[in-house]
Amino acid sequence: MKKLLMIATLLAMMLAMFNIAFADTVQVGTGTATSSYLPIHGLYNYSYTQQIYTQAQINHSGNIEKIRFYYVSGPIANNKDWVIYLGHTSKTTFSSDTDWEPLASLTEVFNGDVSSLVPLANNWMEITLDTPFPYNNSDNLIVAVDENASGYSSMSWGAFTSGSNTGIYYSEDGANINPASPPSAKGRVDSINRMQFIFPATSVPLAPTLLAPANGGESFTNGRLSWTPTLGGADAATYDVYFGTSSTPPLVSGG
User: Fold this and answer.
1) C-alpha angle 174/104/40, rounded to 5°?
2) Are 162 and 128 in contact (CB under 8 A)?
3) How far apart are CA 167 and CA 157, in angstroms?
4) Which are the contacts of 51, defined by CB distance < 8 A and separation ≥ 6?
5) Which of 175, 167, 184, 125 is nearest to 148 (CA)?
6) pTM of the entire structure?
7) What is the pLDDT along the chain (255 residues), one digit of tens a residue?
8) Separation CA 151–CA 187 (nearest Å)
9) Which backbone phi and psi does 80 adopt, to 5 degrees?
């Protein structure tokens, strides 16, 4: 049965407001570029990386409760044991191959196996932090990842051009790397990971952005209705979906 999707119908895709803990998502970086060096260098047994995200890029204070890396491709089994550190910094660039942010200035926020967290290709990989990090929105932010699994495989992650030497990495097949005294880096890069930082909500979710069908268009039985969350407000946990031809259409499905 043919159903018209009216503008009013799309506006009626309301959030289910009960029993939901909202969160604010701050995304840094867009585009389709990729990196095989950050957050881990999967082609080596072990790697340690640091990246700088500026206050202007984040512009949000509060506890960072989760982070997301954009996963593109590659098996995680040999690269699965991560320790993640966050820290405030005045650095805007890594000035040399030895200009690591000291471990004493960083806070361990996650330590574990990320195998179960890897999504389908070209999706965000979400990591819930063991210890939320109180970002002050005054300093820049260091994101450091120490990968400790003994094995290697090629992996690719979403990236964007941030600024000169805003990423630094070291990798090797021999001894595991000590983040407290990392060797001279193998390289510094201008392209760092696209990331999402998740804070407790300070606003309500925004209306979702329709993907298909076109606004005011038509859909047939078993057709696909799809949308994407709109950045700038809190995350939505669920949506109620309405269909109909009037401004007060009946609810036919939810989730």
Assistant:
1) 40
2) no
3) 14
4) 38, 39, 142, 143, 144, 166, 167, 168, 192, 193
5) 175
6) 0.76
7) 444 444 334 433 443 333 344 689 999 999 999 999 999 999 999 999 999 999 999 999 999 999 999 999 999 999 999 999 999 999 999 999 999 999 999 999 999 999 999 999 999 999 999 999 999 999 999 999 999 999 999 999 999 999 999 999 999 999 999 999 999 999 999 999 999 999 997 666 667 777 667 776 665 565 666 666 666 565 665 666 665 655 555 555 555
8) 21
9) -95, -15
**What are the tokens at 131?**
């210890």
Please state the separation of Cα 83 from the chain's center in Å: 16
| DSSP assignments along the chain, one per residue | --EEB-HHHHHT--B--TT---EEEEEE--SS-EESSSS--TTSSEEEEEEEE-HHHH---EEEEEEEEEEEE---GGG-EEEEEEEEE--SS--STT-PPPGGG-EEEEEEE-GGG--SSSEEEEEEEEEEEEE-SSSEEEEEEEE--S-----EEEEEE-STT-EEEEEESSSPP-TTS--S-SEEESEEE-EEEEEE-SSPPPPPEEEES-TT-EE-TT---EEEPPBTBBPPS-BEEE-BSSSSPPEEEE-
**Tokens 């120490």 correspond to what residue?**
146
- The Cα–Cα gap between 39 and 117 comes to 15
Read off the amino acid at residue 170. Answer: Y
- Alpha carbon distances (Å) from 65 to 20, 51, 70, 134: 16, 18, 17, 9
Q: Residue 77 is which amino acid?
A: A
